[in-house]
Design goal:
The structure holds two protein chains of two kinds. By secondary structure, chain A is an alpha+beta fold. Helix content of chain A is 36%, strand content 24%. In chain A, the strands form three sheets. In chain A, strands 1-2-3 form a three-stranded antiparallel sheet. A three-stranded mixed sheet of chain A has the order 6-7-8. In chain A, strands 4-5 form a two-stranded antiparallel sheet. In chain A, a hairpin with an 8-residue loop joins strand 4 and strand 5. Chain B folds into two domains: 132 residues, FdhE-like fold (Alpha-Beta Complex), CATH 3.90.1670; 124 residues, FdhE-like domain (FdhE-like fold, Alpha-Beta Complex). In chain B, 39% of the residues lie in helices and 12% in strands. In chain B, helix 1 runs antiparallel to helix 2 and helix 5 packs across helix 8. In chain B, a hairpin with a 5-residue loop joins strand 3 and strand 4. Classes of the chains: A alpha+beta, B alpha+beta. Strand 1 of chain A pairs antiparallel with strand 5 of chain B, so a sheet runs across the interface.
Chain lengths: 199, 305
């Protein structure tokens, strides 16, 4: 923008330091300089606004998440506010009561942060690693499928059904995730399947 | 039991759904009066009070100038159709100057501005701009319209800019809001001007929507949030505010074009006027000057930042 060039020229010719530009030209240079001195001790803080999709249901409302700090600049960031995204065509700034309480959902003490298991007969959950969790899920699914898979119905027609295990996938998935989920679940013969939580 | 057809549920009507208009054209009769009032209110608590009071007086002079001004020459139907066809702003800057209404605006504003209490530098500049003939005033206007304020005659040009604000606000007010279309990033759909700042509003029916405000004609136009209004990028947008601030005025920074523009949250501070608060939040400009970003918002009254 040309205004940058003008400023440099002015500072070069007049050597007036901060009292360049319009304020100086109108004769308010001293006030400007005093104001600049008073503002110097202050610091700027980074805040971020991030678009996302509400995770609750298949409507997939747009939300804006406000955070203090900027991860891109290597700072820790903390979400301080979440509101409906006015520019999002689905919800145009509105949120349902669940969506409006998303901040508490993010900050909930009881929020699940890692895989946990409650073993048969136990009365409490214990933390396990992702490796253990995925191995255990695969093992149990395989055992259940081997025991209960229906290859053919009473008339001898091939049906390849697995009715004893169900699958519920997330709501805020992309089309690609939903496609991959569908392929995996249906290929295994699973018939009890929903890829979007219902409203 | 309710019969089928008696009610027609419309889930989209639940709550207050925002449907912001694309443009909000200025109302010159209120624009400068509200601006003057806001500047005076800000001057009560600001360390920049003398400058804000001077601008308040100037805005009041702009408001007084309006009364009885001859009608500006408005673009005819052909010009409007041509602008629309080629996606150009309906107010053509190059054709605006030869207008008796603009000459009258210059005369009346400068006469009114003479009554303002102002430093000697400002008064001298005003005297020089009044002595200059219409041809010279129009040459200065061309420089202002090109956003190129020469440093040796800055104050004179800013006085000219104040007159142009009146003229273009009146011209913009005469356009049909529904006929205006987006002309690209950072371009006013009415006059092609650059934004001075952007503002998130709390108006009923548009709450939370963001509007760019034109530095020249004061038209507001709707722009998606979390997007650079200078280059249109949505990547690497950040916000900076002065530590301990109320979150009402922030700098929206863009890592793509390395520019920043003020974003004023009017829904948090309903008194915010996009022009007055842009000047009064000079502290943000001062602190941003030390950073890697350049100011992208155009405001002749803050020239130099």
């Amino acid at each position: 923008m040309n205004m940058d060039l003008s400023r440099r020229q002015f500072l070069g010719t007049a050597g007036a330091g901060l009292a360049g530009g319009a304020l100086g030209a109108f004769g308010f240079g001293e006030i400007e300089a005093a104001f600049a001195d008073s503002i110097r001790p202050f610091k700027l803080v980074n805040t971020t606004e991030t678009r996302n999709t509400c995770p609750y249901c298949s409507v997939a409302c747009g939300v804006i998440m406000y955070s203090k700090g900027d991860l891109k600049k290597g700072e820790p960031a903390e979400i301080i506010h979440i509101e409906g995204d006015v520019d999002h065509p689905t919800n145009r700034g509105t949120l349902c009561p669940k969506g409006a309480a998303l901040l508490d959902f993010v900050k909930a003490e009881t929020r699940l942060r890692y895989p946990m298991v409650r073993r048969p007969g136990s009365d409490k959950f214990e933390r396990i690693s992702w490796e253990q969790a995925l191995d255990r899920i695969a093992r149990l699914m395989k055992d259940d499928r081997d025991a209960n898979f229906i290859a053919a119905n009473a008339d001898g027609v091939t049906v390849n059904r697995w009715t004893t295990t169900g699958f519920l996938a997330a709501s805020a998935t992309t089309n690609e995730t939903a496609f991959a989920t569908y392929k995996v679940v249906r290929s295994a013969g699973m018939v009890v399947f929903d890829n979007q939580a219902r409203v | 039991m309710t019969r089928k057809g008696e009610v027609s549920p419309d889930p989209t009507a639940i709550g207050d759904v925002a449907a912001p208009p694309f443009v909000v054209l200025p109302d010159p009769m209120r624009l400068f009066a509200l601006r003057a009032a806001r500047l005076r209110a800000l001057a009560e608590t600001s360390a920049l009070a003398p400058y804000l009071r001077f601008l308040a007086d100037l805005a009041a002079a702009q408001n007084m100038t309006l009364d009885g001004l001859p009608e500006p020459t408005r673009p005819d139907a052909d010009a409007l159709a041509r602008a629309k066809k080629f996606e150009m702003p309906p107010l053509d800057r190059s054709r605006i100057l030869a207008d008796a209404a603009l000459a009258a605006t210059f005369d009346r504003l400068f006469a009114a501005a003479q009554k303002i209490e102002q430093p000697a530098a400002a008064a001298d500049a005003l005297a020089r701009v009044m002595q200059a003939g219409l041809a010279e005033q129009e040459a200065m206007a061309r420089a202002v319209l090109a956003d190129a304020l020469p440093v040796e005659a800055m104050a004179e040009h800013v006085y000219i800019a104040a007159a142009l604000q009146i003229h273009f606000a009146r011209l913009a007010a005469g356009l049909a809001a529904g006929s205006l279309v987006s002309l690209g990033d950072g371009t006013c759909p009415a006059c092609g001007g650059a934004p001075s700042a952007t503002m998130v509003v709390g108006w009923p029916g548009a709450h939370g929507a963001r509007f760019c405000t034109c530095s020249l004609c004061a038209t507001l136009w709707n722009v998606v949030r979390i997007k650079c209004v200078l280059c249109g990028s949505t990547k690497g947008i950040g916000y900076k505010e002065i530590e301990g601030g109320a979150g009402a005025i922030k700098a929206e920074t863009c890592d793509q074009c390395r520019g920043w523009v003020k974003i004023l949250h009017q829904h948090k501070d309903p008194g915010i006027d996009p022009f007055a608060d842009d000047v009064a939040s000079l502290g943000l400009d001062l602190l941003m000057r030390d950073g890697p970003y350049r100011r992208g918002g155009v405001n002749p009254f803050l020239a130099g930042y």
